[in-house]
Amino acid sequence: SYEVTQPPSLSVSPGQTTTITCSGDELGTKYTSWYQQKPGRSPVLIIFDDNKRPSGIPERFSGSNSGNTATLTISATQAFDEADYFCQTSDRSTVIFGGGTKLTVL
Amino acid sequence: QLQLQESGPGLVKPSETLSLTCTVSGVSIRSPRYYWGWIRQPPGKGLEWIGNIHYSESANYNPSLKSRVTMSVDTSKNQFSLELNSVTAADTAIYYCATAEGTPARYGMDVWGQGTTVTVSS
Lengths: 106, 122
What we know:
The complex is a heterodimer of chains A (106) and B (122). With 106 residues, chain A is mostly beta strands. In chain A, β7 and β8 form a beta hairpin. In chain B, the strands form 2 sheets. In chain B, strands 2, 4, 5, 6, 9, 10 and 11 form a 7-stranded mixed sheet that branches. In chain B, strands 1-3-8-7 form a 4-stranded antiparallel sheet, with no helix packed on it. Classes of the chains: A mainly beta (106), B mainly beta (122). Chains A and B meet through β3, β4, β7 and β8 of A and β5 and α1 of B.
């Protein structure tokens, strides 16, 4: 079965750029979405169709997808961005989530 | 504004059937634009897709759960439902219903319910 892999955790300083990867075989040929989840809250869609932002999502969040890796980039990371981030893709009508990346903003 | 609300028992006994309902408000569940889905999250763990359903299409299920899962749509109540049979402690999780405007693969799930905690225990 198809799988995608994310780093379990990442730490950045406020103001820095955060890069979270999601890796899978030929992932660039599939669509990827990204979700942000804060403790005790439901996930929030922040990127869909590889690089599109739903209304209300700040421009600081951007996405790309090529080769075997999809990337979520957060520019000028803020303490408020501290959360778990999940990538999502699909293979043969099956939706697949990455294991999630816990972002700590120190 | 589209909103989703999960409901169902918070405690299910091992080997029994977990049944949850998601009530949709703000849009007709018969709208061809939307796909309706269930996702779960075991305590302290990541997200696991359970399945999606469109009112006019057959459901798609996670292969690892397919033998135990049934999803259905009730257009008269504007609800969709999840049944998971033969549950074990491994099915203990927060269960979310969610929707995608377009195929979830491309458009992601942009509206989620608040989630409901289901514990499997005798």
